[in-house]
Design brief:
Layout lengths: L4 E7 L5 H12 L4 E3 L8 E8 L6 H5 L3 E9 L1 E3 L8 E4 L7 H9 L3 E5 L8 E2 L2 E2 H6 L9 E14 L7 E8 L5 H12 L3 E11 L2 E2 L6 H6 L10 H4 L5 E4 L4 H5 L9 E3 L9 E5 L4 E10 L5 E9 L5
Parallel strand pairs: 3-12, 14-16
Antiparallel strand pairs: 1-3, 2-3, 4-11, 4-12, 5-6, 7-10, 8-9, 10-11, 12-13, 14-15, 16-17, 17-18
Length: 310
């Protein structure tokens, strides 16, 4: 069977996410490789990379929550909101103390509105924002709702000086830009700020203490041993076991009705994602549908088939 699975890679600073994809293509000599969400070139950390058939599930990994460790520097603003850009404003932040900073951080916990930075891959009318920025264009970008589940300071220095710095950990929903979060914190403090360091420490179930460096992968006799199965990568989704007689129809994309279900969790929410499995294989991802007529029942609609019907 062709190589398939997910690599939990520790991306080094200085490489793009696409550079990592090209590295994996060469390593496994396969074309079908995709990352699960861009990590800025200057940033380091967890970058799950899908290989072979596992590229089908990239979007479901991208949609998971993420955790970061970031450094914010107060009193300096750049046009990219990070170290890669040009300084556009400098302001004395010596009047801000640590208590002020902590109070502002607390205000960002929960659902917040955030405007993606111009130097990002967000598309507006088919064009990526960073492409428009390079053309000298500036457009109004609609704010997005994101969720900050947790944010806390790890270390800080320079209070009373012109440009205090603080290292903080944050857990957030997909689509959150930590650069934009740093800018918004600086705006609230009235000093401006930029993100001076970023390390992604987890993407869903993929944690930084379980990553492989590029050097480690190159030195492995069989780098396929580092691959995580699709089933393990999607373990957050409940398991629904399919009777053998219903496997072929599931793999053909047909809905799974109660007579074809061997077992399922007692409680499932409407539109919840589940894994459809037989005794030996992960067959598909599906969403739950509650029907009330002609009789009340739960059915499962496959949205991503992960095997080929025979």
């Amino acid at each position: 069977m062709p190589t398939a699975g997910i690599l939990n890679i520790l991306k080094p600073p200085g490489m793009t996410s696409h550079d990592i994809v090209n590295f994996v293509r060469r390593l496994f000599n396969v074309k079908k490789v995709g990352h699960t969400g861009t990590l800025d070139p200057a940033a380091a950390g967890v970058l799950p990379v899908c290989v072979g058939r596992a590229t089908k599930i990239a979007q479901y990994i991208t949609g998971t929550d993420k955790e970061y460790r970031a450094e914010i520097t107060l009193g300096i603003t750049t046009d990219t909101l990070d170290t890669e850009g040009k300084i556009v404003r400098i302001k004395d932040a010596s009047l801000v103390n640590q208590d002020d900073f902590e109070d502002i951080l607390k205000g960002f916990i929960g659902r917040i509105k955030q405007t993606p930075p111009m130097a990002s891959a967000v598309k507006v009318k088919g064009k990526k924002l960073y492409q428009l920025q390079r053309q000298g264009k500036k457009i109004d970008v609609e704010p997005r709702t994101v969720t900050i589940y947790r944010i806390n300071t790890v270390w800080s220095t320079g209070w009373g000086g012109n440009h205090p710095r603080a290292l903080f950990d944050v857990k957030c929903s997909k689509g959150t830009y930590i650069r934009a979060l740093c800018k918004d914190i600086g705006d609230k403090l009235g000093t401006g700020a930029y993100m001076s360091f970023l390390l992604r420490t987890s993407v869903g179930p993929f944690a930084i203490d379980k990553t492989y460096t590029l050097e480690e992968l190159q030195q492995m006799p069989d780098p396929a041993e580092a691959l995580i199965s699709m089933d393990a990568a999607l373990a957050e989704f409940p398991e629904v076991y399919v009777k053998s007689r219903a496997v072929k129809s599931v793999l053909s994309g047909a809905k799974l009705y109660p007579p074809g279900v061997m077992s399922k969790p007692e409680k499932l929410e409407p539109n919840q994602m589940v894994r459809l499995k037989d005794e030996n294989n992960l067959l598909a991802l599906a969403v739950t549908i509650y029907e009330k007529e002609p009789l009340e029942r739960i059915i499962f609609k496959p949205v991503c088939n992960l095997m080929t019907a025979n």
